[in-house]
Amino acid sequence: MRNLDIDSLKPNKAGVMAVFYPDSFGKTHLVLILRKTYKGVHSNQIGFPGGRVEPEDENLEQTALRETEEEVGIPRNNIEVIKELTRLYIPPSNFWVQPYLGLLEKTPILIPQESEVERILEVDLDHFLDHSNFINQELSTSYSSKMIVPAFKLNEQVVWGATGMMLSEIREIFRKSF
Fold first, then answer.
1. Residue 1: is its pLDDT beyond 60?
2. Which tens digit of pLDDT belongs to each residue from 115-169?
3. Facing residues of 157 across strands?
4. How far apart are CA 56 and CA 61, in angstroms?
5. Domain residue spans in the chain?
6. Which residues contact 130 (CB under 8 A, 6 or more apart)?
7. Would you give the DSSP letter of residue 2?
8. Closest residue by Cα to residue 86 from 3, 1, 169
9. Which residue has the higher pLDDT, 6 or 121?
10. The CATH classification of domain 6-177, taken from the options 3.90.79.10, 3.30.70.60, 3.40.50.2020, 3.40.50.2000
């Protein structure tokens, strides 16, 4: 397989945040969002809060924090960024995405950004780590039909693609930690 020079494709750059927090009963949750339906390859998909770099962002971590605040209402100063995850290239949208792992000390008040977020999903950590929620799913997209992909079944939603890959890395980090 040949090496792809991704930088030559002039990809857009983005930062996303995987935020974990305790609920009022002390159970740990993860924030995901269901994107609004729009004309674009990531329409109506599950993802992490995050988005494209803006001129005012000092770096991709700042992008992820700003976008998380905008999309789900968590103040950027409340998130402790604990780890940079593996950067991922997304060919259909030509994005280099840098994910981060963040923690909150308290249960946040989550407010979906009306223009971009259809719904916020609060995923229980035990549900996320349960091996039975790792599935193979047949999907059709704008660029392929009836393909079998590894995915997660979380809160009755199928999470796959780049977000699924990021979740797999997070799951492996947790597996090695326990």
1. no
2. 999 999 999 999 999 999 998 877 665 556 677 778 899 999 999 889 999 999 9
3. 154
4. 12
5. 6-177
6. none
7. P
8. 169
9. 121
10. 3.90.79.10
Which residue type is seen at 129? L
DSSP track, 88-150: EEETTTTEEEEEEEEE-SS-------TTTEEEEEEEEHHHHH-GGGEEEEEE--SS-SSEEEE
Residue 37 structure tokens: 């339906």
Which amino acid appears at position 53 of this protein? V
Helix (H, G, I), strand (E, B) or coil at 53: coil
CB-based contacts of 75: which residues, under 8 Å, 6+ apart? 69
Q: Which two tokens stand for residue 10?
A: 């002039």
